[in-house]
Amino acid sequence: MSRYSALSLLRGALNGQRHWQPAWRDPEPKSYYDVIIIGGGGHGLATAYYLAKVHGLKNIAVLEKGWIGGGNTGRNTTIVRSNYRLEPLHNLFEFGLKLWHGLSDELNYNVMFSPRGAMFLGHSDADMVKLAERGDAMRCDGIDADLLTRDQVAKLEPLLDMSRDARFPIQGGLIQRRGGTARHDAVAWGYARGADSLGVDIIQKCEVTGFVRDGDAVVGVETTRGRIGAGRVGICVAGHSGHVAGLAGLKLPVESQTLQAMVTEGVKPMINSVIMSQSLHCYISQSDKGGVVFGGDPDNWPSYAQRGHPMVMEGAVAQGLALVPALSRLRMVRTWSGVTDMSFDGAPIIGETPVRNLFLNGGWCYGGFKATPASGWTYAHTLATGKPHALNAPFSLDRFERGATIDETGSGPMPNSR
Amino acid sequence: MMLIPCPHCGPRAQSEFIYERTVDSVVPLDAPTDEAMTKLFTRNNPRGVDDEIWRHTYGCRAWMVVTRHRVTNEISECRAIGPEALP
Amino acid sequence: MINFSFDGKVYTAQEGDTLAAALLRNGIGLVGRSFKYHRPRGIMTAGVEEPNALVTVGEGGRTEPNTRATDVFVYEGLVAKSQNRWPNLSFDIGSVFGFAAPALSAGFYYKTFFGSAKKWMFYEYFIRKAAGLGNAPTSSDPDRFSQRAAFCDILVVGAGPAGMQAALEAAESGKRVILVEQDNILGPSLIRDGQEQDADWINAAAARIRAANGLILTRTTASGYWEHDLVTLTQRLSEPGQIPQNNVAQRLWHVRAGQVILATGSIERPMAFAHNDRPGVMLSQAVRSYVRRFGVVPGKRVVIATNNDDAYKTAQALKEAGAQIVAVLDARPAPAGANSGHRVYNNATPLSTKGARHCLKNVSALVDGATLEWDADLLAVSGGFTPVVHLHMQAGGTLDWNADAQAFVPAASRQNVTTIGGAAEPQPIFKMASVAKPKKSFIDFQNDVTLSDVDLAWAEGYRSVEHLKRYTTLGMATDQGKLSNMAALGRLAEKQGVAIPEAGLTTFRPPYTPVTMGLLAGAGAKDAGAHVRRLALYDLHAAKNPIWQPLGYWFRPRAYPISGESLAQAALREAKAVRNNVGMTDVSTLAKFEVSGPDAAAFLEIICATTVSKLAAGRGRYTFMLREDGFVFDDGTVWRLDENRYLLTSSTGGADRMATHISYVRQYLCPHLRVSAVNVQEHYAGIAIAGPKAKAVLTTLIGEEPPRHMSTVPAVIAGVPVIILAASYSGERAFEIYITASVAATVWAACEAEVLHIGGALYGLEAMEFLRIEKGHLVVGGEVDGRMTPHDLALDKMLNKAGGYIGASGLARPALAETGRRQLVGLEALEGDIPEGSMLVSNEGASPQGHVSAAAFRIIEGGSVALGQLVDGFSRHGEILIASSPTRGQKARVRVVAPHFYDHAGERYRD
Ligand SMILES: Cc1cc2nc3c(=O)[nH]c(=O)nc-3n(C[C@H](O)[C@H](O)[C@H](O)COP(=O)(O)OP(=O)(O)OC[C@H]3O[C@@H](n4cnc5c(N)ncnc54)[C@H](O)[C@@H]3O)c2cc1C
Ligand SMILES: [Zn+2]
Fold it and tell me: Which residues, 6+ apart, have CB-to-CB distance to A390 below 8 Å?
């Protein structure tokens, strides 16, 4: 792997940038791997990377039906934070956030993680108490969180509508300063390049279409590029979790729904942090290229369509404009959507399945990008040792039937009430 | 935005309806615990056709089962449910 | 003559000019700067695909950055400014990035700026400043945007000859037709290419369509094609930056069409060669538009480069307008162009251009292997035609490859859409040889992506078209890749050694052209799309100027301060009135359901986790409801009004959820029961009267002995029939009075008079919180947070032993019976005030074992008390903990106690 640096770029300037090698190989699948990871999103690639790097496994493949990073990894609004109320969640995400802070160096690939602050707005005294509760829960577990007064919020984001007679007047906020955004593609590509350099085979255009069984165990996968044997198989396919698990005869506590996002034409800097709201269902940030990135609620009905719904989109824009009226004359240039795997308590699932040698990483709903390093790390541990890491132990698949759900919003098993 | 053929009102914009849950999630009142939890916590979630329960919330308010393709959004059937006494 | 300004200088335009036409008319070649290298750019097209000529139009809250000069029609007083340059357009410091271009190759930022995240943020600060294009307005939008729904049998998109003809035929056969055109005239391509009689035909056709009740909308773009033939249209009622008539700047249409006909034509492609981005290099059809439609001749000495016949029309038009055609470079072999009457070079492709910042001076080309050059001030290029298939693809359609045109054309669709005209049958072109010198051969002009960037991405393994796009940023600019996609695919196919259709295809997503955010928001931006519901007694409260509190979509009085009281002072006074005397409050927003019929009790015993059927008529009880997973999700009271008629109340915040739940159980799970469950939340207004003197007040009001605790009677107050429920949330003897909302004011007035008469007070939500916390009553959204079982809340003794209620099986899950669960406790401060929402820790720095869900003060004795959730809390009474709020720098030492601080035995309910 040729190292990336400013110097190597300058060298390239003299030779027409001709010295670069492919960031990853394009290998033919082998007949057997010790571990096969299904899904070349950020989570799958990070898992492969840590399996090789931390656990020293040599014979690993990532199978991707399309092109790596083309799923939700390449479609999300890239908000990275660990400001969750419940302990298992903020512990997992905080572990990830720590990894984010050193990720560009770790991968020698600039993932452009930008801790510009992730801020929740509060619109009433009740909101502010809820925010304080969340912040206190984090702070007591050693995670940064600060309550902001109205004035502090206004100073950080001068374009917010601070009028007292707004429908949802802004009363203050809770900021996690170490949170922010990152460049989604770079995360997939950086992990891919890192994994590839450690010998992982990344095989694109290779869809898993079935499982090879030996009794109660999985011993390989059927793919569009033939049968491949495996010691252990890890599913890591986000919105397609239900479909792929179904190939192994499993039914999951997951419903696939579409989540859309959109971006405006690029403008000079106007939004400084990541703005989220307790009462409004939208989140706003500005990309390095200047586009204001917007997201809202999921479409709230089952779908694999990867197409958004105009009303949901218009609703999210209305809420965003209520917060930042100056967005009114910008133009939305692109909308897109991803198929998210909505779990039945809103928390991810990382661990064993009832089928021997088959593992699952899914149920990330609309919030798994921020977890990419933590998800990869813990899943790698689980795949390498056959047992969960302490951080992902609470996120087992059997927690639903046992009654040990991790329900951040307290809204129960129906994803559309979340 | 889909066009849903409400059995009582005829085709109406999706924005008048709310999706409630899938038919396979319905927990019968007399289901034993195991079955009830399986119903509640697992889904077929097919990348294809499934039966869904929608409600014409901002219309006639009736409940209905919509048979829909999850990728193409084609609706092959929409049937009324509820007490037979409903007009 | 129309006056407008560009970068502060005033110019004049002709009626009907686009800003681009007007700038060209005034000899302005340099209009903008590119995104990355800040290269000088001019006007390249005459349509929505323009990548270069982006300007900021308008002032104040009407400022529209990144407006394509080709897509705004000049109006009197239009103010346009160039963007992405400093200090000015001509001399732009940012153009130093151009010198660094060899190092700033595709994806360079992935390869450098390492170090801590903070370090990246340092670089990022400068990158962000250099990026973006125009500036967003900083003041709010003075205009409105409207939305409209429409239905039609046939929606025709594009008023070219094909679209006009289709619309005409449909309208005259009796169909309801809508015809939309993004331009401000009908048939712009006919005006560009046709004769005088063609203009007459357009006018006649339009008149006939209108006569047949067809609707024609110009300046209207079909921007999104959604499910089941729903198309969104964006209609400009005023130009960017213009003060609209009637305040409405734009209108958004949601059109449900029986059938959609796409007659969207095609977009001309540029050619790739070095310095093909210079002002003075334009698309051939655009040149023709300027000449024939706008009467502007953008050059005097013109070279034309083409791979098709169409460009000869441009040559002809220019010649007729008096320009000199110095050469036609035709990529095709002889005899192509032989009879055109121009100096045609066959097997000729452009190589490079020279010029200054503002203009083109020289064109060189490879002709049969030899390099030739010409002095010229305009280079008109035609690299072929890309059908506008965007809407077809948004509708989920597939594409076919048309090798003659080297273009994708619409194939099958699962929606009811057909494509006609140039979009279906693009003109044939000649497939050009690969460009040998990819440097500075731009394909995405706005984002400064060259063929060599594509080559680099390929070499580095970014080989799928999506990787290529994302790595190079190709197609991500405001023109959404309208000009660049095919060039990139072509290069990719060459690299792979396959035909273009095998190289892949990117998807087209809405919108077709960028859409103003304010338009999408419509009127919703004002109230964030969240309506407010008004209390039936709103006016009575408002007259007292209370502090309001938002609660769901309601606003309720939080306290009624008098003579300068603070919220806390007022709430304490109000709560004391309830404890010592009597108070009244508005409880109208509570969820209420009237359940009747022979099976009403059976039905309620499915909804409620407590017994119901044991209630005697005229009696009521506390109840709670479980979700199917066994967690408590709401609570309230249930009353047997009659033999077969019950009233169920539950929380305000959960009202909609409960209504849906009840309806689901009724309609889906229990269609066989003989029961009716009606949501009467807003049918009844509610008044609560509480305090030691409440009974006396009620006796006066109804003229008889009021019902005893947990009983109900019908009564009459001030001549109005009411239902009286003797229930208490405050912990005092109390009554809830329910009245038909429309006549509730009379009853409120009578109650208020009596309450005030005996020295009582109105109280709001804040006092109610104090009262209920002290009493240890639960609140949904507080103690009942969706994660607590009946056992956790010490409600398990009330569960219906017979089972059969919803949630019974969820509750049987093993983990819900394990130790280590959070349980409801009371907390008493030993030191300090207990912060609401704070964490319960055993010592500073320890992980939380629970939290404070609600905090208040003992109303009479004073002292801070609270309710909370604590791990295994039931067995920890007496323990001392810290309630810690690091975010607020507050803490208190607390003792864990039972969650009741007031009259645990319920003495005060008894008469
Ligand atoms: C619009 C949107 C906005 C979001 N915003 C945020 C945000 O701001 N912050 C945040 O933290 N999270 C966000 N998320 C969620 C986040 O994107 C995901 O949780 C996360 O990226 C999931 O990563 P992944 O690697 O598991 O999935 P993916 O990136 O989707 O990868 C799964 C891969 O599996 C492949 N695959 C599927 N089936 C098969 C098969 N049979 N064989 C082989 N391969 C297969 C897919 O092609 C895909 O590449 C958002 C999601 C969306 C859609
Ligand atoms: Zn209906």
Answer: none
Of A253, A301, A416, the CB nearest to B42: A253
Of C415, C48, C398, residue with least CA distance to C222: C48
Torsion of CA C120, C123, C126, C129, to 10 degrees: -20
Secondary structure (3-state) at C472: helix
Q: What is the pLDDT of residue C93?
A: 85
For residue C120, give the amino acid letter: W
ipTM: 0.97
H or E segment and range at residue C774: helix C765-775
What DSSP state is assigned to residue C322? T
DSSP 8-state secondary structure symbol assigned to residue C54: E
With a Cβ cut-off of 6 Å, ligand 1 is lined by A 38-44, 63-66, 70-73, 75-79, 207-208, 236-238, 240, 244, 259-261, 295, 337-338, 340, 364, 366-370
- pLDDT, tens digit, 9 for 90 and up, residues A51-67: 999 999 999 999 999 99
- Asked if A235 is an interface residue toward chain C (Cβ–Cβ < 8 A), one would say no
In three-state secondary structure terms, C724 is strand
Q: Name the residue at shortest CA distance from atom 13 of ligand 1.
A: A367
CB C727 within 8 A of CB C738: no
Please name each of the domains of chain A with its CATH number.
116-178+255-340 (3.30.9.10)
Q: Which amino acid is at C742?
A: S
Domains annotated for chain C, with CATH where assigned, are: 2-113 (3.10.20.440), 144-266 (3.50.50.60), 270-383 (3.50.50.60), 432-507 (1.10.10.1100), 582-588+683-759 (3.30.1360.120), 592-679 (3.30.70.1400)
Report residue C895 as tokens: 């003792």
C864 — pLDDT class (breaks 50, 70, 90) = very high
CATH of the domain at B32: 3.30.2270.10
CA C126, CA C133: separation in Å to the nearest integer?
Answer: 14
User: Span B31-54, mean pLDDT?
Assistant: 96
The CA-CA-CA angle for residues A50, A53, A59, to 5°, reads: 90
DSSP letter for A389, please: -
Report which DSSP code applies to C307. Answer: S
